[in-house]
Amino acid sequence: MSDPTSDLLPEGLEDRLPQSAAAAARIERDAMAVMGAHGFDRVRPPLIEFEKSMATRTDGLMTRHMFRFVDPRSLRTLALRSDITAQVGRIAATGLSDAPRPLRLCYAGQVVRIAGDQLEPRRENLQIGAELIGSDSAAAAGEMVELAITALEAAGATGISVDFTLPDLVDTLAAETFPLAEEKRDAVRRELDAKDAGGLTDAGGEAYIPLLFATGPFDDALEKLRAIDAGGALSSRLEGLQQIADRVRGRARLTLDPSERHGFEYQSWFGFTIFADGVRGAVGRGGTYLIGGTGEPATGFSLYPEELVEAVKAQESLGNKLFLPLGHDRSAATRLRGQGWRTVEALSDADDAAALGCSHLLDGGEAKPV
Amino acid sequence: MSDPTSDLLPEGLEDRLPQSAAAAARIERDAMAVMGAHGFDRVRPPLIEFEKSMATRTDGLMTRHMFRFVDPRSLRTLALRSDITAQVGRIAATGLSDAPRPLRLCYAGQVVRIAGDQLEPRRENLQIGAELIGSDSAAAAGEMVELAITALEAAGATGISVDFTLPDLVDTLAAETFPLAEEKRDAVRRELDAKDAGGLTDAGGEAYIPLLFATGPFDDALEKLRAIDAGGALSSRLEGLQQIADRVRGRARLTLDPSERHGFEYQSWFGFTIFADGVRGAVGRGGTYLIGGTGEPATGFSLYPEELVEAVKAQESLGNKLFLPLGHDRSAATRLRGQGWRTVEALSDADDAAALGCSHLLDGGEAKPV
After folding, report:
1. Chain B contact for A142, CB < 8 A?
2. What CATH number did the domain enclosing B161 receive?
3. Which residues are recorded as binding L-histidine (chains A, B) (predicted)?
4. Model ipTM value
5. Strands, DSSP E only, in chain A?
6. Residue A333 covered by a domain
7. Could you tell me the residue range of the domain that residue A339 belongs to?
8. What is the pLDDT of residues A154-192, one digit of tens each?
9. Given A42, A72, A78, which is nearest B18 (Cβ)?
């Protein structure tokens, strides 16, 4: 016998057992089917890459959050991916650099990070996403927000809400509208993140305080933001937001929190976070960005459906199981599988239909209740 | 601009671009659907585990072939999985220890190993498989061989052949039939692997030479093996082989190579290797074994479809793409997606249907050829 403690999994890692694995697999399949139907082609980058390559493609992606190890073959440092977006950016810049733009790619796969935190203790996640490469326009953003909503609906999410943000808000306003020296901007961003009016004043960003109140339901918040933007520095952004919101109005509850930057380390003018009823935390996040290295504009999103799996797994159907007794009619079994039955074959007389979770058994070529 | 060499992937790792990713995703989906229809429930173990736990579950699984690294959280060594079978054994022994037997589980996921070799340079593989836990009988083996064939057929493999082996052949014969001291058995196994009659004689295994000729088409080879097994030590095994072969006769070309041990480091009485037309090397492998730690009998197989992907990807259809001009009829687009069309939405006047790979465009609510 082995030491039972050797069977425990490391903190933040888990086995998905049948009910939960079925929910995860179905969610992945349904979300990917929606992306495929909207013209996004799947790519599959590898689980590990050179650390340096991972770091190049995305400014905000910290390789220090990745498991890293030396490759005995190349003697270079490899990293286990913590994000697939950066890998898709690499593919767009290399293997698919000659493909026509806009280039629509999607992906699904496991990602791992060294440290979970209290809010999100998981260290391994399923990441499902899509990237529209070659455009960061409002039209592109509208397509991607709607696609994220449609994919999540197909995956079983309900009560979807989308929170918009303007990741480069401070930089945009700091040039003229509310002048702010380069070296003060980080502090102002931090106080905006903290929603701390006093802190903003201390940081020399008193002019930014009204932004703290331009949040909430989309239409109201946008109006407040328009009033703040007297100089019109934000006008193209606000018009873009309006266009995106008009496209998905009625599909989701829309809110605006223009200074929210958490999770938007590499996005440019537009970002969004998606929530769903009964699902703890954000279920997805996306926005516009420039691909590291080439600077090509892109718009994308990632879904992290682990908590959605938790929310729906109890209702996930594993399908009806049909017990096939010893010496059963094999062609009837094949026919019934074709009708959607899941068959469970007896290996010996000891096998019991009910104990094996079968609701029916094959009798006279037909499924009869056990 | 980044250093272009930083974008190269490590040796043995690759991006799957759309054509190849679509083939891999379809193969995974079709093979998993077959396993599900035969009563196998999916599980999803994590990508990384404690090295010690990986090592416990499977005798033949060498953690020195895995990427390993220290977990800053637990300060213990973790390993990136190179095999999922051992993880499923752990699940059977822990989270599903109380589930009724036989327990049917299946899985699909990526596995990674440190070193490729000349025959198989890939360091990351897709592994798809099924484990029947609680039985290593001929009935269980027959079910699993047939399931492997059915799954591969659904995945698009043709001209399937299955090569049977008896992994514990030497141990079984060495007790009485062809007595052989414990310390000589390894050498005899090696010479049998090498198919070297002279080597066998030198190793003191002259009596084993006839085994080298009991190979080839199943019925002939089994008859030769029966003739060699005068003492009857193999009789239950040969009967089992016969039973398995009878079950899948007509579904695949069957061969027997009773002393083949390559890839069967942890199997017990029965092993099999699967090949398919046009696919380089083995496409799958399985057999009976005892789960490490608990010693519970089990029968399983793993498919490694990477070369099957290579063989079929050129024929893989990505589906017909339908261009949606600016201001298109959105309900018509939804309806056509429901009919299987993949739509590609125009973002601006510059977007060109043909350049974006669209065969049709939406015009008057209908798909018209471009």
Report:
1. no
2. 3.30.930.10
3. 83-85, 113, 127, 131
4. 0.94
5. 41-42, 48-50, 68-70, 77-80, 103-112, 124-133, 161-165, 216-217, 253-256, 267-275, 284-290, 297-303, 321-324, 342-345, 360-363, 366-369
6. yes
7. 321-369
8. 999 999 999 999 999 999 999 889 999 999 999 999 999
9. A42
